[in-house]
Amino acid sequence: MKTRSLALGWVLVCAGALPAAAQGDFSTVAIKAEQVADGIYMLTGQGGNLGLSVGEDGAYLIDDQYAPLAEKILAAVKTLTPEPVRFVINTHWHGDHTGGNENMGKAGAILVAHENVRRRMAAGTFMKAFNRKVEPAPAGALPVVTFTDAVSFHWNGQEIRVFFVGQSAHTDGDSIVHFVGADVFHMGDTFFNGMYPFIDVSSGGRIDGMIAAVDRVLKVASDKTRLIPGHGPVGTKTDLQAYRDMLETVRDRMTALVAAGKTGEEIVAAKPTADLDEKWGGGFMKPDVWVGIVYESMK
Q: Were 17 and a residue from 2, 23, 134, 148 both cysteine, which residue would form a disulfide, CB within 3.0 to 4.6 Å?
């Protein structure tokens, strides 16, 4: 399918399949912090959004972008707390969320993730749609604590619940982090705020799973809940509901087209997202590429 070649470049960067030099000039990247709640921040730089909890127990980091940014990330953390990073939680295996693991581990952090994250990182992943092998990560980059369903931390005065979304969504190893008392979630790449998300079909990603992951958070979110997305600005329950409605609309329209016997190329040509593209098509996933990926995920 034509959309596969269109998506290839961005997908390989997102998945960490390209060397650091091919992912951009990291020397110009600035790590910025935005306070989300008392002691909880979102950090941005290049790659997935980071979450950070600070307090007397030590820094607790969610994801770590790319390896060349580790020093800058640690420096940004030091502006918010004198305590070292004690834990790094990976929301999934992609390189823009796990690329700094080895450096963070060397700095003393304990790496934690769902067992499928370690499995994919350790073995490498063959991206069938692109005939591309993502090489295994170094041993020092692998999570040393893994879980199957959920794990809780009692840290910096917070109960922090990290839970597997329960099925394949963005990948087959997505976790969401819930700061219970603060009413804050870090949703990893199950939530791209204000844009079409990437679904990594070669890692088991499915649009139905994306919708289900969002539903789990919507069931417990309130109007005061703050949501750190994998990409995009900090969101609210209203933002997440709009995103969920978009996912369902696209899924249902394409289900009807598939039922009518349309091929993938015919579905892309039909432009089933035309009325949604102005609002959602300005991010990583351009409309035709997004439709093609959704079609692949539904297969």
A: 134
Average pLDDT of the chain to the nearest whole number: 92
Examine the pLDDT at 129 and tell me if it is beyond 90: no
Residue ranges in the chain assigned as alpha helix (H):
2-14, 70-78, 95-98, 101-106, 115-123, 207-218, 237-259, 264-270, 277-280, 287-298
Indicate the domain borders of the chain. 2-244
Which residue carries 């969320």 as its tokens? 97
Within a 13 Å sphere around the CA of 251, how many CA atoms are in the beta-carbon half?
A: 18
Q: Any idea what DSSP says for residue 112?
A: E
Q: Count Cβ atoms below 10 Å from residue 293 Cβ, excluding itself.
A: 26
Convert the pLDDT of each residue in 216-247 to its tens digit: 999 999 999 999 999 999 999 999 999 999 99
Instruction: Please say if the pLDDT value at position 253 is more than 70.
Output: yes
Q: What is the CA radius of gyration of the chain?
A: 18
Calpha distance 45→132 (Å, rounded) = 27
Calpha distance 192→96 (Å, rounded): 14
CA 123 vs. chain centroid, Å, equals 20
The pTM of the full predicted model, rounded to 2 decimals, is 0.93
What CATH number matches the domain at 2-244, 3.60.15.10, 3.40.640.10, 3.20.20.70, 3.40.190.10? 3.60.15.10
pLDDT tens digits, one per residue of 133-151: 889 999 999 999 999 999 9
